[in-house]
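User: I've been trying to design a sequence by hand for this structure and keep getting stuck. Would you show me what you'd pick, starting by listing the structure so we're on the same page?

Assistant: Good idea, let's start from the same input. This is the structure you sent:
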């Protein structure tokens, strides 16, 4: 039960010698934490904000190889990614699900049908699998009726996978915690500890949850910096030389009524010929993504008016039968990609490869992408293996997901709903439904979540602020109009008792959430 009592008890037991302290609670830190815990190492994960607060809750919701990276000849990145995609589909059903994409060719696009077909063949061979197909132009409207047919030459169908990114992070962390690892959100690393030789031997940590817990100094054999776009900020303690290029990716979300696509579509922007996606996700339609340099860091990243116009232009170009405007947008979100700066001229040509390095004992890992988080975890852990007892060997093919020992589907749930619930919660799904009131085992439309998940999450999932619940544990803030504020009274009935907040605290949290949603998750 990850509640306030858990936080205080955990904080009281932090001052012990750790094998590894992982700084950063996104998908990279989560994977490292889980892998170490499964190898029975004494591991602590510290996140300054909420788990998955940064990049790992603001991705394009895809586990994918990156078909467009083939054009930049990033074959190693694609091969690594498509193979990890296939493993995740197999090992995390209901959380990572196969998704077909239509990629249509047009006379003005600059890519022939032959080139598209060759590209998806290479994409499949790197997996390796053989699941793509070509679609004659006469049949394309049967696959996706909304797609532009003017000057259409043909299409290919290929497969990647869909994910709820923040739920992936939380499940990976939670299952690591079940193996005796300890993870804390709202625990900010404010400095590094050094030995007389200047080597990093630990961290200073401050409570950010409002629980008034005393700052602590914690020691470890190894400190790993896995803070994504914030990695250079942590590295200022050991080096003044930046290594990262921060690229902003922004997205639009429409209701399925406004943009009722049947399946995912790879779009080519008419202005710059960049590849974008239209994706059916959680009962809405997601459009993304941009790829722009952002030289500054702020607490949260937001979309710009220019990006809204850019994404609307691509959407209306490829789906002219259902034109949309800014007035139709349900929500927006924007995240930063931590790209290792190799001097690429255009953001879209920058490599998505990852790297790691040791500076005065602080080990930093960055770059990469969500899909290969296990590869990144194994690579950096093998890099530090000599500093751990028994010098272990880690492998990215190791399972990071526990499979439920007992699974009895409630009669009120469809097989699909039950599959999704197990995907999100793993072995805890059975406990969730067993404890839920029967009338709450129905869908929180348009999401695939159940209303019962609100109470469960409020009680068990380290909620400190209302936005933790509504933006990351359950994606109400992204998928419901006005961030779900129209349902706030029902949400209050389900969440407030479990959170233990009085009326004043609930009111202040709703106001805080309203301001965050308006500023960072809606129109600029």
């Amino acid at each position: 039960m990850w509640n306030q009592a858990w936080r205080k008890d955990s904080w009281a037991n932090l001052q012990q010698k750790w094998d590894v302290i992982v700084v950063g609670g996104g998908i990279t830190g989560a994977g490292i934490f889980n892998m170490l815990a499964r190898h029975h190492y004494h591991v602590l994960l510290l996140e300054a904000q909420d788990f998955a607060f940064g990049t790992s809750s603001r991705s394009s919701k895809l586990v994918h190889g990156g078909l467009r990276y083939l054009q930049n000849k990033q074959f190693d990145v694609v091969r690594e990614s498509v193979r990890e995609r296939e493993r995740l589909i197999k090992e995390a059903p209901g959380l990572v699900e196969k998704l077909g994409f239509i990629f249509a060719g047009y006379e003005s696009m600059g890519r022939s049908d032959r080139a598209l077909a060759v590209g998806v063949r290479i994409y499949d061979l790197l997996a390796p699998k053989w699941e793509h197909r070509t679609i004659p132009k006469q049949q394309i409207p049967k696959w996706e009726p909304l797609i532009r047919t003017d000057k259409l030459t043909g299409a290919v169908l290929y497969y990647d996978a869909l994910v709820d990114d923040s739920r992936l992070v939380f499940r990976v962390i939670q299952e690591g915690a079940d193996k005796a690892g300890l993870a804390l959100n709202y625990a900010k690393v404010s400095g590094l500890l050094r030995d007389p030789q200047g080597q990093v031997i630990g961290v200073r940590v401050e409570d950010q949850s409002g629980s008034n817990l005393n700052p602590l100094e914690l020691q470890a054999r190894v400190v790993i910096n896995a803070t994504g776009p914030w990695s250079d900020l942590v590295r200022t303690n050991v080096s003044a030389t930046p290594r990262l290029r921060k690229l902003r990716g922004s997205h639009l979300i429409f209701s399925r009524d406004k943009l009722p696509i049947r399946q995912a579509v790879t779009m080519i922007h008419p202005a710059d010929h960049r590849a974008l996606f239209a994706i059916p996700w959680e009962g809405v339609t997601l459009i993304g993504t941009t790829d722009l340099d952002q030289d500054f860091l702020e607490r949260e990243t937001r979309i710009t008016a220019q990006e809204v116009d850019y994404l609307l232009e691509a959407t209306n170009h490829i789906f002219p039968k259902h034109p949309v405007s800014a007035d139709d947008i349900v929500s927006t979100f924007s995240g930063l990609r931590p790209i290792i700066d190799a001097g690429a001229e255009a953001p879209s040509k920058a490599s998505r490869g990852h790297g790691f390095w040791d500076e005065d004992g602080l080990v930093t890992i960055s770059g990469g992408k969500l899909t290969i988080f296990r590869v990144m975890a194994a690579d950096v852990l093998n890099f530090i293996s000599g500093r751990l007892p028994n010098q272990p060997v880690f492998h990215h093919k190791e399972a990071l997901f526990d499979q439920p020992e007992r699974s009895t589907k409630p009669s009120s749930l469809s097989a699909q709903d039950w599959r999704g619930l197990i995907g999100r919660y793993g072995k805890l799904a059975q406990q969730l439904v067993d404890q839920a009131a029967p009338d709450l085992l129905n869908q929180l439309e348009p999401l695939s979540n159940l209303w019962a998940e609100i109470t469960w999450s409020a009680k068990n999932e380290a909620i400190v602020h209302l936005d933790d619940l509504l933006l990351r544990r359950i994606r109400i803030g992204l998928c419901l109009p006005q961030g779900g504020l129209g349902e706030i009274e029902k949400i209050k009935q389900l969440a407030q008792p479990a959170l233990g907040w009085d009326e004043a605290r609930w009111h202040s949290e709703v106001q805080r959430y309203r301001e965050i949603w308006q500023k960072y998750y809606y129109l600029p």
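That's my pick for every position. To get oriented when you compare it with your attempt: The longest strand covers residues 152-163. The two ends are 38 Å apart (CA to CA).
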